[in-house]
Amino acid sequence: AQSVTQLGSHVSVSEGALVLLRCNYSSSVPPYLFWYVQYPNQGLQLLLKYTSAATLVKGINGFEAEFKKSETSFHLTKPSAHMSDAAEYFCAVSAPQGGSEKLVFGKGTKLTVNP
Amino acid sequence: GAGVSQSPRYKVAKRGQDVALRCDPISGHVSLFWYQQALGQGPEFLTYFQNEAQLDKSGLPSDRFFAERPEGSVSTLKIQRTQQEDSAVYLCASGSGRGAGELFFGEGSRLTVL
Q1: Are A14 and A112 contacting, i.e. CB atoms less than 8 angstroms apart?
Q2: In what order do the strands lie in the sheet with B5-7?
Q3: Cα separation of the two ends of chain A
Q4: Distance (Å, rounded) from C-alpha B72 to C-alpha B45?
Q5: What is the rounded distance in angstroms from the CA atom of residue A69 to the CA atom of residue A37?
Q6: Could you give phi then psi for residue A62, rounded to 5 degrees?
Q7: Please, what is the Cα angle at B111 between B105 and A37, to 5 degrees?
Q8: CB-CB: which of A51, A102, A106 is closest to B45?
Q9: Can you tell me whether residue B37 is helix, strand or coil?
Q10: Could you read off the pLDDT tens digit of each residue along chain B, which spans 114 residues?
């Protein structure tokens, strides 16, 4: 079974500050890991994914995440926050060995960016 | 189509009514998933199709929930005798089925049960 824990349901940063959104996972098999972003009244958009290649993954809009197996973590970072980054962010895990793309999501972290 | 399309975007139902939510996946996508997202929560898995076969329905909360994908393309999620706790956004996602893991999500159908 797989699960994801996102530490902090709300994160607030100033424009230009570092963004750090935390995600820890549990998986009995080597996982694939994802970060999705959701803007109000919209669906989920993929930011980046880890699929067992490079442990440092770069995504869209300047975001990146590092897979750390020893810490079972996949934290999302961005060096400098922009007002347009305000949204809800979801970390998700899948077990591709089973042949399914089924994702298990965390509860989400709402990011607020202050001017 | 260019993306996953869901309809209706908004649905208000009286308790006890039946509702049907439609999902039109990306053309050629083999996998189709339904998720339920309650207010302030992450998406919760409901069910999964590979082509027309429903391979996993372990997340359906009760026998009032039923999903189908008869021709392996468009899918319908039906909720019978709706209850207030069914109020949520229902998200549909499709994937290539090649195990790369990326799912493409629609904008969701927001159901409000009064």
Answers
A1: no
A2: B5-7, B19-24, B75-79, B65-68
A3: 41
A4: 19
A5: 23
A6: 80, 5
A7: 30
A8: A102
A9: strand
A10: 589 999 999 999 999 999 999 999 999 999 999 999 999 899 999 999 999 999 999 999 999 999 999 999 999 999 999 999 999 999 999 998 876 668 999 999 999 999
> Would you state the pLDDT for residue A5?
96
Amino acid identity of residue B114, one-letter, is: L
Q: Could you tell me the two tokens for B34?
A: 């339904």
Inspect the interface and report whether the beta carbons of B105 and A43 lie closer than 8 Å.
yes
**At B31, phi and psi to the nearest 5?**
-90, 145
- For A99, the closest chain B residue by CA position comes to B99
Q: Are B99 and B1 in contact (CB under 8 A)?
A: no
Q: What one-letter code names the amino acid at A16? A: G
Q: Which residue has the tokens 């999705």?
A: A36
Q: Tell whether A46 lies on the interface with B, counting CB pairs under 8 A.
A: yes
Asked if the Cβ–Cβ distance from B45 to A104 is below 8 Å, we say yes
Query: Considering only alpha carbons, which residue of chain B is nearest residue A33?
Result: B101
Calpha distance B85→A104 (Å, rounded): 21
